[in-house]
From TrEMBL:
Pfam family of the protein (one): HIT
Record protein name field: Histidine triad nucleotide-binding protein
Alphabetized InterPro entries for the sequence: Histidine_triad_HIT, HIT-like, HIT-like_sf
Species name: Demequina activiva
Molecular functions (GO terms): catalytic activity
Active-site residues, as the UniProt record annotates them: H99 (tele-amp-histidine intermediate)
Residue ranges occupied by any HIT domain in the UniProt entry: 6-113
Motif (Histidine triad motif): 97-101
C-alpha cells in the first residue's frame, strides 16, 4: 500500500469503485470513464508504478492479472478483448499503480494498432 495512490485506496475499499473481480493477487473494477462497452482496470494488490515494475517485484501478480483479464472477458465479451498498459506520462499513464485496461464489446471492434 502506498499513501496517496488512488488504486491502493480503491483496493483497500477507502474509495468506492464497481469491483467486478478480486482474488488474493488482483482487484478489477470498472473504469470511471469507459472507452468501450467493457472497460475494466485490472490491478495487482502490490503497489508498483508500472507493468515492468510489477513483473520484477511480484511476477505471480502479473500472471494473475492476465488470468483475471481473460476471466472478465469470458464473462462480458465472448473472451475477446484488447489489453492496454499505458506506461509513462507521455503514453497517457495518469495513475502510477500498474494496471491493465481490459477493453471489449461494442465500441471496440478490431485492432487499435
Ligand atoms: P491510465 O491513464 O493511467 O492508463 O489509466 C487510468 C484510468 O483510471 C483512466 O482510464 C481513468 O478513467 C481511470 N480512473 C481515474 N480515476 C478513477 C476513479 O476514481 N475510479 C475509477 N474506477 N477509475 C478511475
Ligand atoms: Zn498503489
Amino acid at each position: 500500500m502506498s499513501d496517496d495512490c488512488l488504486f491502493c485506496s480503491i483496493i483497500a475499499g477507502d474509495i468506492p469503485a464497481e469491483k467486478v473481480f478480486e482474488d488474493d493477487h488482483v482487484v478489477a473494477f470498472r473504469d470511471i470513464a469507459p472507452k468501450a462497452e467493457t472497460h475494466v482496470l485490472v490491478v495487482p494488490r502490490t503497489h508498483a508504478p508500472n507493468v515492468a515494475a510489477i513483473a520484477a517485484a511480484a511476477p505471480h501478480e502479473l500472471a494473475a492479472m492476465a488470468t483475471a483479464a481473460q476471466h472478465i472477458a469470458d464473462r462480458e465479451c465472448g473472451g475477446e478483448y484488447t489489453w492496454i498498459f499505458n506506461t509513462g506520462a507521455s503514453a497517457g499513464q495518469t495513475v502510477f499503480h500498474a494496471h491493465g485496461h481490459v477493453l471489449g464489446g461494442a465500441g471496440l471492434e478490431g485492432s487499435l494498432v
